Amino acid sequence: MWTAGTGATENGVLVDGVLTKMGDELSWHYDWDAPMTPWRVTDPGGRLPLELTPRHDKHSATSLGLLATETHQVFGTWSGSFTTDDGRTLTFDRVQGFAEESRSRW
């Protein structure tokens, strides 16, 4: 969420060569302490309800005194739907993918 609060996002969906820009910030819902439970992603307009069902968590952590980083990178399958700018709703089920969160202290 490095763009949070900036008015800029890096989110979009490419369908048949046409990019639909997701201008609103997405909401991520997951449990840092239980990364193998489903991760859900939504947008304020309801155009993008997604769920990632993890099958593997690539967890890493490093601490060097005042410097530290910890990452959960979960791999699994995405299911949900997406509504394009022209109003088409596309659904998908069990598409391979991943998501991650990294927390660092510098």
SSE pattern = EEEEEEE
Enumerate the strands of the largest sheet in spatial order, edge to edge or round the barrel: 3-4-5-6-7
Unreliably modeled segments: none
Mean pLDDT: 91
Q: What's the total helix number?
A: 0
Rg, Cα atoms, Å? 16 Å
Number of structural units classed as domains: 1
Main sheet characteristics: 5 strands, antiparallel
Q: Secondary-structure blueprint of this entry?
A:
Elements lengths: L10 E5 L2 E5 L4 E3 L9 E4 L7 E15 L2 E17 L5 E17 L1
Antiparallel strand pairs: 1-2, 3-4, 4-5, 5-6, 6-7
Describe the structure in brief.
This protein is mainly β and 106 residues long.
Write out key terms for the chains shown:
single chain; 106 residues; mainly beta
Describe the structure.
The chain has no helices and seven strands. The protein has strands at residues 11-15, 18-22, 27-29, 39-42, 50-64, 67-83, 89-105. The strands form two sheets. It has a five-stranded antiparallel sheet with strand order 3-4-5-6-7, with no helix packed on it. A two-stranded antiparallel sheet has the order 1-2. β1 and β2 (18-22) form a beta hairpin. The radius of gyration is 16 Å and the shape is globular. The two termini are 17 Å apart.
